[in-house]
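**Backbone description:**
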Amino acid sequence: MKQLSKYKLNKISKNLDYFFNQATDKEIKQGLRWYKNAYNFVIHTADKYNLQAYKVASVVSALSPRNKWKQNLIDADKVCEAFSLGLQPTNIKVCTFHTNKFKAFNILNSNTAITDKSLKTYNFVNNMAYLCENSLTIDIWHLRACFNKVIKIDSASIGRVSYEQIKDLTINKAIKLGLKGYELQAIIWITAQRLINNK
């Protein structure tokens, strides 16, 4: 996806308003807490195993594909504990792909790192590790909300320019609402799953 036209951005803006306006009070409260809870987990786990917050957040991100959030955190703690004990990836089981488990260990061993070459994961890690207000996670659910339709995971890739456009639009919209960008994104993420799954 190349640069988005003003027409498309205006349509995206209206779609994001729609999903935010459809959020229940419970969903808004959940969204406001989501990244704060993730941040608290990252800081607590980093302190517990004497690790850098960015690395712990990167481990969470690495273990997230096809993994439920609660299990994702259990697996992240398990990997960090195993690493601190000098264990290897083959010594433990997690509920995601083997490649992601090995990637998590490589992150902790400083053999690889999540950088801005992967915009979604880079923003996700910065949101979790630092509650960074200039970062925004644009995942499949945010894209589905942006375009108000079901988008298949394998066709959810967007270019850097359009990523930055949607990111800026969402953050600016959040600021006007008195929210952080990541708070609005989390509220929309929760609401979109309910509404789009029920289509």
